[in-house]
Structures are given as C-alpha cells and as structure tokens.
Amino acid sequence: MRSKIVKIENLKSLINKLKLKNKKIVHCHGVFDVVHIGHLKHFEEAKKRGDKLIVTVTSDKYVNKGSGRPIFKQNKRIEFLSHISCIDYVCLSESSSAISVLKIIKPNFYIKGQDYKFSKEDKTGKIDFEKKAVENYGGKIIFTNEETFSSSKIINNNFKFNDEQSKFLKTISKKYNYDYIEKIFDKINKLKVLVIGETIIDQYNFCEALGKSGKEPYLALKDIYSENYLGGAAAIANNLAEFCKKIELVSMIGEKREYENFIKKKLNNKINSTFFSKQNSPTILKKRFIDNITKSKLFGIYSINDDNISQREDQAITKHIDKIIKKFDMIIISDYGHGFLSDKTALKICLNKKFIALNAQVNASNIGYHTLQKYKNINAIIINETELRHEMRSKKDDINLLSRKLITKLKTKNLLVTRGKNGAFLINNKNNKFIECPAFANNVVDRVGAGDSMLSIISLLIKIGAPNDLSLLLGSFAGAYSVETMGNSSFLKKKNFLRHLEFALK
C-alpha cells in the first residue's frame, strides 16, 4: 500500500489534481499511536463525508503525549494506516500542529472526534485554531459521534510502566489525588520567575557515514540535514512558560549577536528577554554530528569562548539584575561554566533573600574547573552523579554520603541528584529526608536538556511547598519527556504534562 503514502512536498500537487476532478476532500489528523477500533470507526465515518480521505500523521519529534511516546515510530504508523481500506492517502506532517497541512489540503471537511468538540475540554489546546484555519478556506469541521477510545489511556493502563515504576506511582497515588496536584499547579501559575544563564544553540547535523576516506585516515560523512534547537537558560525559560505567570530571561550571546533573531523567534511569546553580548566570543554553538539511521552521536564541535566576561560587562549584568530582581518570586540559574556569571555576580545573587534554584553543569569544556563553590545558602541544586563526584573529588565513595557532605558544605536546602537509568534522589537539609525515585524514561534518545527540564519543574514545586516525594516524581516525569526527544525539539506543555500524569496515577 505504499502507493497511498504521499510525501509532504508532493501533497499540494496531489490535492490540486483531485480538486480539478471536483473531488470532495476529507481530512483527519493525529498521532495514531496504537490504532484501535475507535480510530477505525472514526475513519469510516469520515470517509462517508467525501470522495477522498487524507490522513496526516504527526512526526515523532512533535509527539507530546508523555514519556515513551510514540510507542510506534512514524514510519510504522504511516505504513499501518496505508493498509486501512477507507483511507486513500497518508502523509507525514513535519509540524507541531495540523495548521500547516490544513493550509495545503484546504479540505471540504475536517473530521475530529467528540472529545475535541468543546474547546474548554480539548487537552491539546489547538482545536480553536484548527477550526479557524478550516473555515478560512471555506471548509467545515465535523465531530464524529462514533464510540471513541484514548490511545494514551490504553497505553498507560496496559503496558506503560515496569514494576518499580508502578510501585512508586501507587505509593504517590495513595497519598495525593489528581485534584490536589491540580491545585498545586494553580499555585505555580501565580509565580513570577527570573531565569539567568547562558543561551546555547544546540545544532544537530544528521549524516550518513560513507566510510574511511580513500586518501586520508578520517571518516567521511554525507550531510543529510541539520536542525537548530534552543538550549541552556533559554530552554529552561521555554519549559517554564506554560506553567508560570511571568518569565524573564537574562542571558548571554556572542559579540556579533549571532542567532539572536533565531533565539527570540524560538522563545515563547510570554518570555521577556535581555541579552548581553560577550566580547571576543561567539554565541555558544554546540554542533553534534548524528548518524541518520541509528540517531547515535558520532562527535561534537563547540564554538565557544570560556573566558570570563569583562569587568564592564559584569557590572552591566549586575546592575540590570539589581534593577529587576524585586519583581520576581524566585530565580533559576543555569550556569554552564562558560564565563557569563562571575563569582562576584553569583555571590550578589545568592545574598538576595529570594528563592534560588541552580543547575551548574560539568561539560566537556570545563571538567575540573567549574564548581558549585560560588553558590551557597540557596534553596535547590540539581546535578547528576558524575557532577557530584567531580565536585567532591571522589570516584568511589558512597553517593548518599557524598550528597550529605555537599549539602552541608554549601548550606543548600535541597539537593537533587540524577543517576540516569538508576533514577534520582532528593535530599532536604532541614528534615534530613532522603527520597528516591525510579527513572521513568523507557526510550532514551538524547540526554541533552534533561537536567534543565527537571530543574524547571522541581524548582517550582519546591518553591510553593509541594511534598518532596511528589516533587521528585513530577521532576522525573519532566526529565523523562526530555530524554525521549532529540534535542530540545519541543518543550514542556502543561496540558500534555498533566494529562500524562493523570493517566499514570490512575
């Protein structure tokens, strides 16, 4: 049934040919992960409305249904749909919403299920925009009355979590119901957050390995395509945008302000931003070369200047932060050790009587030089196990003991340590409680940005006084979402995040 599968670049031509023949076009759009009887009835009902049924499918990188999704990759989902007799054409949509394909198809009828009929109940938050797009082209949106089933609910209820994950979720669900969690996020929604740190451009270059060069001893790669994603402090700001009342980003870019327009375009409209330019420095660009088939990283090249900022720049940054800091309930610092935050500025921020959360990462360019020492008496720090051992100069000592030593040394109120497949743990210095949580990422694609995602959620929860075990779970969910997508191709969506959580706790 490959004749039914249409490439996006050929879709417009196909539609034009069908409309010249006066064919009525019917359009369905979705993820269609684990196709079930509800989908089949939906497609059959849709086909009754016209001559040709076109189904567009959300690509893997834009699937925001929670950890481990999609279960089936885009090629498998497309192929399966092509075997359904009432479907005439299937096309992969390389977009985060249906709007782009609606503009191409301009269907006579756009068919959605009953659960999208009322915009207030639409958990995607997109149906009103889709309805407007359809009607702008003279089409009509129709909601089927057929019996429906949720793929997400089927997946989460039947084969989502392992024994360790299920046990932890059961413990949490007994203590906190979903209504309680919703009230917590209502409190978070009132927060005004200041985000400080370096903005990073994560560039992913997808390649095909051709083999060793015929004349020189190096690996030859064929360039396939590349994508740029927001990283660093800008990624944290984007992750916070749908959860908080106000977000302000204070960050650093290069002297020539490279990528500034790209950064501002990719930032959520809710975010107000101020960018300082660093002398003799490019905007931080981290190029990663990826095998296009396996999606494994081959090597990386960084465009970076790790020198400290000048005294003049440092003074300007401090002055600006002093001017605005009183407007915010809390501060989140993302310090990658690339010279943006001096010891003096860090100390001054820490002396403010504000809630402060920190992610101070060790990376390839600063191992052994970048430490947490300049951040003391703050509310929360998130690091991974490797970073903890670097900080404490210990390769083999018990990690729990090292954590308690660090939290005492820095007088930090909360320390979150991530351990990859071994999960994470949270220590509170006041009550000395040690809480462990299993990892919830079942399909690790890319670890870049996981710590930022966890910090984004867990810092908000600690700020409003949410229980530590619940905070750890929600932070772990955020991290799981991050590692199961390539780069920061998408950010946390409140509705999707809460929906996945609701299913998980049932």
Please provide a brief summary of the model.
The chain is an alpha/beta fold and 506 residues long.
Protein topology:
Blueprint lengths: L4 E2 L1 H13 L4 E6 L6 H11 L4 E7 L15 H9 L6 E5 L5 H7 L3 E4 L14 H10 L3 E4 L7 H8 L4 H13 L2 H11 L3 E21 L6 E14 H8 L5 E9 L5 H7 L4 E8 L6 E7 L5 E7 L7 H14 L5 E6 L7 H9 L3 E6 L19 E5 H8 L6 H12 L3 E5 L5 E5 L5 E4 L12 H14 L4 H16 L10 H11 L2
Parallel strand pairs: 1-4, 2-3, 2-5, 3-4, 5-6, 7-9, 7-11, 7-13, 9-10, 13-14, 14-15, 15-16
Antiparallel strand pairs: 7-8, 11-12, 16-17, 17-18
Helix pairs in contact: 9-15, 13-14, 15-16
Please state roughly what percent of the residues sit in beta strands, choosing from under 5%, 5-15%, 15-25%, 25-35%, 35-45% or over 45%: 15-25%
Derived structural class: alpha/beta
Q: End-to-end distance, in Å?
A: 39 Å
Shape: globular
CATH class of the largest domain: Alpha Beta
**Radius of gyration, whole Å:** 24 Å
Which features does this protein show?
single chain; 506 residues; alpha/beta; Rossmann fold; UDP-N-acetylmuramoyl-L-alanine:D-glutamate ligase; twelve-stranded mixed sheet; 18 strands
